[in-house]
Amino acid sequence: MQRWIMHVDMDAFFASIEQRDQPELRGKPVIVGGCGLRGVVATASYEARRFGVHSAMPSQEARRRCPHGIFLPCNHRYYAKVSRQIRQIMQDFSPLIEPLSLDEAFLDVTGMEWLYPDPVVIAKQIKGRIQSELGLTASAGLAPNKFLAKVASDLRKPDGLVVVRPEEAAAFLAPLPISRLWGVGAATAKVLADHDITTIGQLAGTGLSRLEAWLGHSAVELKQLAAGQDNRPVVAEHTPKSVGNEETFEHDIYDVDEIETQLLRLAVQVAWRLRLLGLAGRTVTVKLRWRSFRTITRSRTLTEATCLEKVIYDTAKELVQAAMTSEGVRLLGITVSNLTSGSGQCSLFELDAQKQLAVAQAVDKLRAKFGGEIVSRGRLLPHKTPQ
Ligand code: TTP
Ligand code: MG
Does 4 contact ligand 1 (Cβ within 6 A)? Predict the structure, then answer.
């Protein structure tokens, strides 16, 4: 299965938060300093960067370059809070998130074709929600692996979105300077420059034995990166104790058929999340909230752990049927807990043919119920998601 990795990096993060909160600072050179080492710039707004101010520059030097700059102290705790809000938006799109810093994370969005026509739609929606809900811009790269995604997110800052499809990887990298390759510092760059190699394309076109003679062991990895190959997985920060989704409806639902349709849609989401994490669970819990706000949960523990929408849906349906009343339903949720590592069986990459068939059938059924376009339009995602 084609892997899709997204790298998201906020633009001028600390400075953008200050400009968001104090509109009079917008369009002005804002320099945030004093986050760690005293007297060093943490970040500068893009307006200030035009004067040559950048992160880690001594503040004195920044004042010299940009005398009319607006220097602000660092409010690290507050920026960390905004960072958590960003993470929450990301969690609506993938359970597999690897944060690298307050303003940067990798997301594995592999397998989203069940929910979206194209992974680019996910990238646009994540950027869109960060903008509309938090008033901040992010730059994103979407590519078949971490290395390409990270390079891509940095290319069109600010507010960029760069997509690298597998067949475009070599052409995408070729003109870029070798300093973009992970592991190429000043010393390696100098050795390569001495042999007239300054771009990634030139490095990719150089024989491994020559590179090994100049650079030793690191040549193999550099050559792979230069060819756009990188197999490192996105490693989630925490393994969840449960995987679930719930939805509050705009209008209370009375129709049993409609309730089952919503359950199926939740089951598809939960199963997909489980498989993305390589997990399976034995306990299926449904949550029901009625018009009167009375809320119940009902659980069943299966004999075998599952990551399949059909099993999750069938179990949830029985639980809901047993609990139904004539009152309208306000909220429905499905959670799978009692999780075990799927030992490969529930990995997106190793679903055997029979399981794939079950998945496809469940999605077909969903399509039949919702009409052909529902699954591919991303309406399976939480209701706040813009179309
Ligand atoms: P970066 O993502 O490196 O920078 P940025 O978000 O400010 O700008 P860009 O648009 O180029 O991504 O770092 C994120 C935040 O981390 C940054 O806003 C401030 C903080 N930071 C420091 O405190 N010191 C540093 O040396 C760097 C590089 C960042
Ligand atoms: Mg950033």
Answer: no
Please tell me if the CB atom of residue 10 comes closer than 6 angstroms to any atom of ligand 1: yes
Q: How far is the CA of 222 from the centre of ligand 1 (A)?
A: 26
- Ligand 1 close to Cβ of residue 140 (< 6 A): no
Structural tokens at position 189: 């760059």
Distance 43 CA to ligand 2 centre (A): 9
Outline where DSSP puts E strands in the chain: 5-10, 30-33, 41-44, 70-73, 97-101, 104-108, 138-143, 161-163, 242-253, 279-290, 295-306, 329-341
Which positions are catalytic? 104
Bridge partners of 245, per DSSP, are 334
pTM over 0.70: yes
> Of 30, 55, 150, which is best to mutate to test ligand 1, by the most ligand atoms within 8 angstroms of its C-beta?
55
Those residues whose C-beta lies under 8 Å from the C-beta of residue 83, and which sit 6 or more positions away, are 99, 102, 103
Residue nearest to atom 12 of ligand 1 (CA): 11
Q: Which ligand is nearest to the CA of 33?
A: 1
| Residue whose entry in the numeric block shows the structure tokens 């390409």 | 148
- The per-residue pLDDT string of the chain (387 residues; one tens digit each, 9 = 90 and over) reads 789 999 999 999 999 999 999 999 999 999 998 776 568 999 999 999 999 999 989 999 999 999 999 999 999 999 999 999 999 999 888 888 999 999 999 999 887 666 677 889 999 999 999 999 999 999 999 999 999 999 999 999 999 999 999 999 999 999 999 999 998 989 999 999 999 999 999 999 999 999 999 999 899 999 999 999 999 989 887 778 899 989 899 899 999 989 998 998 899 888 888 877 878 899 999 999 999 999 999 999 999 889 888 899 999 999 999 999 999 999 999 999 999 876 555 665 555 555 555 665 666 566 555 544 444 333 343 333 333
Strand partners of residue 248: 331
Mapping DSSP to helix (H, G, I), strand (E, B) and coil, where does residue 322 land?
A: helix
Ligand 1 in contact with 13 (CB < 6 A)?
Answer: yes
Q: How far apart are the first and last CA of the chain?
A: 26
